[in-house]
């Protein structure tokens, strides 16, 4: 019960105040926006950050679903005129594989100092733990795709997501020890 209370405080209070991205934190020329696919609004949030000049690269990592492929095509048609700054990884199937792909890419781009990690609010704490452990020397800032828990017919769905992420975080922490 204490661990669950810790998790709720972490996900709704500590992470937003301490690690979430603010416009004052990042410089376009030494930052990359990393989008972890798999949830609603993530790619759109990454595009928005990129279009507003918060990163010099946009790295989209994960398995593309059909709707995400349509978004990818839209990105290529409407937003970007050059492919140098948009990177797609279609092989990663887990958060750890996302982190490893980003680590390999960063080895080829040592000028990048900051990462702005985009994912869903419930996924960011675990992503932060995995990316910090895998990448290490880079500053990692978090940007949730969804800002607020929507209290409506999907309340049970969100409670289930938060609990499953809690179990995954505990497993991740134990596996790192």
Please supply descriptive tags for the structure shown above.
177 residues, Rossmann fold, five-stranded parallel β-sheet, 6 helices
Explain what this protein looks like in three dimensions.
This protein is 50% helix and 15% strand. The chain has one domain: 3-Layer(aba) Sandwich (Rossmann fold). With 177 residues, the protein is an alpha/beta fold. α3 links the parallel β2 and β3. The chain is globular. The chain contains 6 helices and 5 strands. The model has no long low-confidence stretch (mean pLDDT 79). The protein starts with a helix and ends with a helix.
Strand order of the largest sheet: 3-2-1-4-5
Radius of gyration: 16 Å
Estimate the strand proportion. 15-25%
Number of domains: 1
Q: What's the average pLDDT?
A: 79
The CATH topology is given as Rossmann fold
SSE arrangement, N to C: HEHEHEHEHEH
Looking at the overall shape, the CATH architecture is 3-Layer(aba) Sandwich
- Distance from first to last alpha carbon: 22 Å
By DSSP, the count of extended strands is: 5
Spans of at least 5 consecutive residues whose pLDDT stays below 50 are: none
Structural class from helices and strands?
A: alpha/beta
Class in CATH?
Alpha Beta
Q: What fraction, in percent, of the residue positions are helical?
A: 40-55%
Shape: globular
- Please summarize the sheet with the most strands: 5 strands, parallel
Number of helices: 6
In CATH, the homologous superfamily goes by the name HUPs
Q: How would you concisely characterize the structure shown here?
A:
Helices cover 50% and strands 15% of the residues.
């Amino acid at each position: 019960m204490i661990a669950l209370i810790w998790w709720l405080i972490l996900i709704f209070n500590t992470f937003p105040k301490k690690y979430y991205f603010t416009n004052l934190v990042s410089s376009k020329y030494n930052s990359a926006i990393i989008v972890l696919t798999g949830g609603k609004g993530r790619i759109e949030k990454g595009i928005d950050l990129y279009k507003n000049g918060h990163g010099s690269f946009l790295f989209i990592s994960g398995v593309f679903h059909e709707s995400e492929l349509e978004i990818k095509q839209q990105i290529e048609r409407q937003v970007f005129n050059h492919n140098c700054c948009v990177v797609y990884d279609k092989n990663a199937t887990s958060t750890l594989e996302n982190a490893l792909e980003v680590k390999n890419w960063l080895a080829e781009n040592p000028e990048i100092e900051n990462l702005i990690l985009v994912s869903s609010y419930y996924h960011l704490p675990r992503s932060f733990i995995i990316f910090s452990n895998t990448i290490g020397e880079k500053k990692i800032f978090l940007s949730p795709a969804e800002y607020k828990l929507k209290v409506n017919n999907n309340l049970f769905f969100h409670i289930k997501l938060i609990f499953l992420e809690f179990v995954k975080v505990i497993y991740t922490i134990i596996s790192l020890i």
